[in-house]
Amino acid sequence: xxxxxxxxxxxxxxxxxxxxxxxxxxxxxxxxxxxxxxxxxxxxxxxxxxxxxxxxxxxxxxxxxxxxxxxxxxxxxxxxxxxxxxxxxxxxxxxxxxxxx
Length: 101
Fold this sequence. Notes:
The chain is mainly alpha-helical. It contains seven helices and two strands, in the order αααββαααα. The protein has a two-stranded antiparallel ribbon. The longest helix has 18 residues, at 42-59.
C-alpha cells in the first residue's frame, strides 16, 4: 500500500467515520492475517479499495457511503485462496460476496 495514500485515508475524517464500525469488527480484523496481493494483506487491499471508492463515488455524487462500506467487505473471505483445495472449496472464492452479505 502506498504510504501517502494510506495517510490521506487515515486523515479523512468522513471516510474513517463511514468505515469505523467495519474496521473495528473482529472478523474484519482477521483479514489482516491473509495475504491478498504480494505483500498486501486482504485488509489493506480492501481498505484502499474502500478509499478509492469513497473518492470516486463522492466526486460523481453517487451513494459513496454504501459503496465505501461494500468495498471494505468485498474480499471478506478468511482463507488463503492460493493454497490448493478441492474444487468445491476453491470455487467458493468466486462467491465470496454471498458470504460477505
